[in-house]
Design goal:
Number of strands: 10
Helix content: 40-55%
CATH topology of the largest domain: BirA Bifunctional Protein, domain 2
Order of helices and strands: HHHHHEEHEEHEEHEEEHEHH
Number of domains: 2
CATH superfamily of the largest domain: Bira Bifunctional Protein, Domain 2
Distance between the termini: 87 Å
Bound molecules: 3,4-dihydroxyphenylalanine
Strand order of the largest sheet: 1-5-6-10-9-8-7
CATH architecture of the largest domain: 2-Layer Sandwich
Strand content: 15-25%
Number of helices: 11
Amino acid sequence: MENKRFDEIRKTFEKDLVDISDINVLNDLKVKYLGKKGLITELNSEIKNIPNEDKKEFGMKVNELRTIFNDYYDSMKEKIEKIELNKRLENEAIDISLPSTKINVGAPNILEKVIEEVEEVFLSMGYDVVDGPEIEEDKYNFEMLNIPKGHPARDAQDTFYIEGEEILLRSQTSPVQVRTMLKGKGEVPIRMICPGKTYRRDDDDASHSHQFMQIEGLLVDKNISLSDLKGTMDVLFKRLFGDKIETRFRPSYYQFTEPSVEVDITCVNCGGHGCNVCKHTGFVTVVGAGVVHPNVLRMSGYDPEVWSGFAFGFGAERLAMMKYDINDIRTFYNADLRETQVFDREDEE
Ligand code: DAH
């Protein structure tokens, strides 16, 4: 075998291996020369035709050719990989002049946030936060709150009935007062608030929703009067809306409190100067409350000659609407994520 053959093969691969930019093409070339039927590999099969004395030299030459090919291959591979890496880096480079994509992060539900704030105020005054069932018995939702069957007060609290006339979706959180007293078995003091869902057969509009949240409160102890309620409401609303907020009572009527009051607070919108929100009175009504009616205490096992208490209830949406300047209660229930942006804005300030 003459050197010519070796030179030929070497020249072809030297030509082949120039200017390759694709690693697959390079690997195909490796197969072409060093694969099972590769040009260099096949030289080995010719060894049987070589005279014995030349066999050693022939073998060495094949190996030399293989080494040279591999050296070419390795340096080419390194070159291609470098080029590809640079290309990738270029593509992946961050263009800091581009506007960023805003990442939307979650935010607490506004209603939950307001409820938590109320809970914090009451927890700091030694109240418990309790729970009650949304599917309620007529007995707790009405009767034991001094609203017997046929009482006209029921009209304003028409609700959804689950089974017959006895099982319903609670129209107020007030039944939790009864449940708490029954559970307390005459023990005092009772200091509880209960935030929770309530339902009414109302047509939905900007200020009505067939589902809404109330926060109920009850305190039972000795010698409790309206002035204790006044102080408590004062603390609550000053903590929620600031020290400038004042509370005032107006006489009202509820079946389960006597006397009953509406609690007004300084209009948060205008600071009490008068605006559309407060119908130019400087005050808005936020809570229904009163001194617990003796019948209610008695029916739940507390002797009204010994014990007295106050109770209150208010809508959580109403507070949230005042706090976050929302003018439609349906905002809370239509799953519009923009609602949470109220918090984004608050966080940015
Ligand atoms: N449950 C009443 C309602 O839904 C609100 C209320 C008024 C609750 C007076 C009370 C209360 O505890 O004492 O309209």
